[in-house]
């Protein structure tokens, strides 16, 4: 909306970029939030009721932040990359926890 | 809690919030200029005094709210009082800005008076 | 976005707000009204307006109610009694009809409806039968269960809108450069600038409330939106989780089949109240009354703190002996959740706090409405320059009218339906609700068909008249109007009439202002030509 577009092709590219970011933000962001929630629930060294609640409430804060990141990142690939980078340590922790007796 | 205590503390809460916003608003260049003419600015000493008094009044309002409703609901009451006082300040700054310094002083005095009476009556 | 951070956040703020703004208008308007849902329900039952209810002690109210229930439903599985409080001076009772009875009445659809009765606390007699209506509960349910759709679908829609709103608020804060400098700034009569100022002021002055209400709204349904924490911590055993979170619920307890008369409730309540240092009881649940295995759960009256977790004590139903109560020590996360839940539903005993919440909710409505209008006002010049109004802008302008001006018309129509529909009408509550949606549909279609200033004026005028005349309608159709309610201290009714009068006045003023502005504009255009 701030970049003036006079040709069709750049405008289409702009819209595709927005759509891509939106998809990454909505689904990717949720996936990251869910991963963080699951990891916290699994690994927090507190009573499982407390861990479950803390994880859930945190997940609901992570999600809007992830969405904001996706639109602040300079390009859609960067947005996705940032999400993946964030999710990586949590995914690893989930994998470890899922296999070990800690689950 | 006697009703006198409730009334004076309530006055302190509301008047303090309004007065605090009035002072803090006047400490800003834009609103000072609204009152004193275009381009006017408060001197550093005046600005500093307005800010200290403003924050002090907001703190007084907070303490009054905590006294009225306890340490949990009191915070909620304070935020609500700030909202209501904020609206009053905006309306005055928009439609009756010349009267704001006077109103701020009057409200501030009322708040201090209310707090004083509350401390005596408690 | 190749632009800077602030600009990308501004873009995100615009779209995350705009795309769900119309649904948010519904949620905010219905939700804000819900703070007074009991009072709205009372207004909508004019038969109860003149019922003077003699205040008695809680113990006596409970005993009288129990006596009444013993006559009506001695073999019910469960009784619920709500003792008189500031919001409701009568005793509300609900009971599960015994299985045999339910089938005989043809209600056997697998889900038994509870019977209910409103009782006089002094005598236990049922108060005058009031007309069937959903009252304020309609708005309460509307704001998260919507209507005409399955509940899970509605809650997902509302959840998506709420999350979008949270994104809009956070991005709005980040993008608002001069949040402190512009804190008090409102410049009226400057077109787009004024809309932006009003949007900023209504947002910033109640910002803690807006953040709180949006996030806590998500929290109330968080197990639906973000179930992964529970699933992982409890190995997919959701039942175990809920049993730990809500330990007071009866876990598959069964009646013993041995008859044992229910102990008097009065002493039980007095014991509970004393255990709480004098705090009054609010709700009593009797499981399997008149059975040897019966239990009585006494819950403290709400409104004293912020937490939605209310202390509950359990007693044996046959003897009145206290039983071990399930109030486990609450951890920080559980306490936080219940405070957040309590903040959202706002069942404060304190009229002042509730009023402040209501005012903040109205600020929220103003924030959403001015945001929607701001977008249309900003877009308009571009389209005017191009010579024609594009489809998108036309759609937005139409939806704006339907949501911002049309919803008040719909709400007023609901109240008018309450008084104009015959009291004995079959399916009455549904009929009242259909008036709401019919009025809204008409307003929406009209707005979309002709999105223009005159349409705004007409709808605001309609809404204003309908609201402002409600106090008159109240008196004319058997309710206690202002000249009766104020001298007699019936504050709930007086409050309803006063607030609707004020809302009507505001809408009428807005309609009038729109008319005057048009005249000024044409005069200016005439001078410029």
Task: Describe the secondary structure blueprint for this structure.
The complex is a heterotrimer of chains A (103), B (122) and C (529).
Chain A: H1 8-43, H2 48-72, H3 76-99
Helix pairs in contact in A: 1-2, 1-3, 2-3
Chain B: H1 3-26, H2 29-36, H3 44-95, H4 100-121
Chain C: H1 5-18, H2 21-34, H3 37-43, H4 58-72, E1 78-82, E2 91-95, H5 99-104, E3 115-119, H6 137-145, H7 151-175, H8 192-204, H9 207-220, H10 222-225, H11 228-233, H12 238-245, H13 265-275, E4 281-287, E5 295-300, E6 312-316, E7 322-323, H14 332-345, H15 351-386, H16 391-420, H17 428-449, H18 453-468, H19 470-476, H20 482-485, H21 491-528
Helix pairs in contact in C: 1-7, 2-6, 2-7, 2-15, 2-16, 4-13, 7-9, 8-15, 9-14, 15-16, 16-17, 16-18, 18-21
Q: Which key terms come to mind for this protein?
A:
heterotrimer, A: 103 residues, mainly alpha, elongated, C: 529 residues, alpha+beta, 2 domains, 59% helix
Care to describe what's here?
The complex is a heterotrimer of chains A (103), B (122) and C (529). Chain A is built from 3 helices and no strands. Chain A is mainly alpha-helical and 103 residues long. Chain A has one domain (25-99). Chain B is mainly alpha-helical. Chain B has one domain (3-121). Helices cover 87% and strands 0% of the residues of chain B. Chain B is built from 4 helices and no strands. In chain B, helix 1 packs antiparallel against helix 4 (100-121) and helix 3 (44-95) crosses helix 4. The longest helix of chain B is centred in the middle third of the chain and has 52 residues, at 44-95. Chain B is elongated and about 50 Å long. Chain B starts with a helix and ends with a helix. Chain C has 529 residues and is α+β, with helices and mostly antiparallel strands. Chain C has 2 domains: 5-44 and 139-205 and 348-528, no CATH class; 53-127 and 251-327, no CATH class. Chain C is 59% helix and 7% strand. Chain C has helices spanning 5-18, 21-34, 37-43, 58-72, 99-104, 137-145, 151-175, 192-204, 207-220, 222-225, 228-233, 238-245, 265-275, 332-345, 351-386, 391-420, 428-449, 453-468, 470-476, 482-485, 491-528; strands at 78-82, 91-95, 115-119, 281-287, 295-300, 312-316, 322-323. A 7-stranded antiparallel sheet of chain C has the order 3-2-1-4-5-6-7. The longest helix of chain C is centred in the C-terminal third of the chain and has 38 residues, at 491-528. Chain C is globular. Chains in contact: A-C, B-C. Chains A and C meet through helix 1 and helix 2 of A and helix 1, helix 7, helix 9, helix 10 and helix 11 of C.
